[in-house]
Every structure is written in C-alpha cells, then in structure tokens.
Design goal:
The protein has 393 residues and is an all-alpha fold. The chain contains 14 helices and no strands. It is extended and about 100 Å long.
Length: 393
Amino acid sequence: MKINFDKQYLKISLYAFLTIALSILFYLSLGNLGNFLEWSTVKFTDIRKILSSVIMAISIAYILNPGVRWFEVNVYNRIGGINNSKKLSRILSIITIYLFLFGLISMVIVFVAPQIATSMADISRRVPEYINSTIEIVEDLSNRWSGELNAANQVYDIAGHVERNINQIFINAGNILDYVFNNLILGIMSITSGIFNFILGIIISFYLLGDKESFKRGTEKILLAIFHKKTVIKIKDLGREADTLFGKYVIGKFVDSLIIGIICFIGLSILKIRYALLISSIIGITNMIPYFGPFIGAVPAVIITFFDSPMNALWIIIFILILQQFDGLILGPKILGDSVGLKPFWIIFSIVLGGGLYGVLGMFLGVPVMAIIVTFGNKLIDWQIERKTRNIE
C-alpha cells in the first residue's frame, strides 16, 4: 500500500519540531549560563598564564619598536658598510635599545631599589615610635587646652573617648601597615617567580622585532582574504592612527612622570624631607594616572611624612600642589599636547571603568584605549555617512 505524504504538513511539522527543540536548547543554555561563564573564565585565566611570556614579549616589542626604528633610520642606516645590509642594521638597532633597557633596569636595581627598600623597612620599624609620639601630642594638647576642654569634656567626654580608642586606632593602623608590607613582600616574591617569563619574553621580543615586516605582511594577507581591498586600506590607516595615538600617549606620559619624579626628589631633598626618594617614586608612578594620580600619590606621601613631622607634611602638601599645577599647566601640555583628544568626561569615565576592571594598570591604560575606541567609532560613522552620500549621488 502506497502512503502519500502531504509536503505542506510535513514542512509545518518540521518547523514546529525545530522551534520546540531550539526553545528547549535555549532554556537549558540559560540554566547553565553561569557554569559556562565560570568555565570560560577559568579557561581564559589558564590560557593567559600559559601565554604570559608571549603577551609580555608582544608588549616589550611594541614599547621598544619606536626606539629600534629611530636607531635604524637615524644611526645605522647612515654608517657606511652597515647601511647596505638591512638585516645587520636591524640587529644592531635591537641590540642597542636592549642595552639601554638593561642599563636603565640595572641603575634602578643598584641605586634606587635598595634605598626604597631601606625606607620602607625603616617606616615599618618605627610604627611603634609613631604611635607613642602621636599619643604624646594628644596628651600635650589636652594639657594645654585643659581649661577649654574641661567644659566640653563634661558634656561629651572627649578625653575618655580618645583614651578608650587611641590605642585601638593605632593598633589597627599598625595592622594595616603590616598587611601592606606583607602583601608587598608577596608581590616581590611573585615578581621574582616571574623572572623566567620576563627573560623568555625578552628573547621572543627580539625575534618579533627582527621579523616585524613578515608579521605585517601575514596580517595584511589575512585581511585581504576576508575583506575588500579598500576596506583593508581603511583598516590599515585606522591601525596606524591607533598605534600613533597609543604610543604617543604611553611614551609621553612616561617621560612626563619621570621628569615630575626627578623634580619632586630634588625639591624634597632641598626641603630635607625624610624618605624623599620613596615619596618621589610614589608621586612619579601615580602621576601616570590622569586627573586622579596626583591625589592618589599625595595621600601616602603626606601620611608617611606626617608621622615623622606634621610641619613637613604641610610643606609636602604645598609642594605637591605647586608641582602638579606646573605639570598640568606647563610640562604636561608641552610633552603630551592633546594626544588623546578626549573630553574630560570620557577621560574620567575611562579611568573609573579601567580601574574597576583591572586596577591601577586599567586606570592608566583606560584613557588611550578609550581614545582608540572613540576614534574607531568616529571612523565607522564617517565611513557610513560617506557610503550613504555616494549611494544618493
């Protein structure tokens, strides 16, 4: 017996089955979305750890590439016998910039790091002394103003409140300092354990810098295989603009913060402030963060100095305010100019977002990344307007 199938009903049944199956699959996916995201996060973290040396190598190569290019174009390509060999010129340029890098790191390790470590150890050792001196200051003020304080003390019991809580306050302060220094030691140990990755990153970055043209050609071939030639040209132009913006900002901000750190060290040395090198290092590093950096750096600097001398802490506040005004009005614009081209709102937004996601590094890199995103968005809008205008014509 021959069975006749109604194709229309068969098609409807098939669509109904697919709809139900996809609905069930979507429901199950939502139910396991949390597990999937957790699994993805763990896998991403594992992959990042495995590729940490490669990521470090790419970062090192990107930072050193402008220096390699400068030595190659302005130095070795002008020396007879070397300018005929592009490969030799490139190798010598890479070696030269690595020598500068290792020289800078060696200077920091030999001259700066020991003094900073000594200052931090001295601060940790003197915490009990700071607590006792602060208690003496409170008692001295209480004795001087005893007449004025007696009336208020009868009503509010100020002296009793201070006496009950002062020891606990400084115990908590000591615990906080111990926590900070212990975590600092753990951080130093973590850095020490990452020395192998750093050395491996240096080696890989050497080959990246030496063969950067081949990587560019390979990337361009992939883009040409996916997009139209005109689109690839636009992507390359956008990449160059993003590279210029990011590199100019990072290098300019580094130079600006280095100068501010040196000026700060000279000024604090003239004022005879204890721990001048440690405070200057904090000011210089935090100055890398736009807008909020000066305030972030001033807080630990004032706290460290206040325990040693309240009057010196006042001088630190005045000096840092003057220094940051000089940086914001004179030095910063001279070095950076309008390197990112962002409005203050977007700068603050990128700092808050980057800091919330990736901490201090996110606060620093959030600004150039946001600038690149804004530039990319503006380019897309311009391309879309250009395409619509061409279609209308």
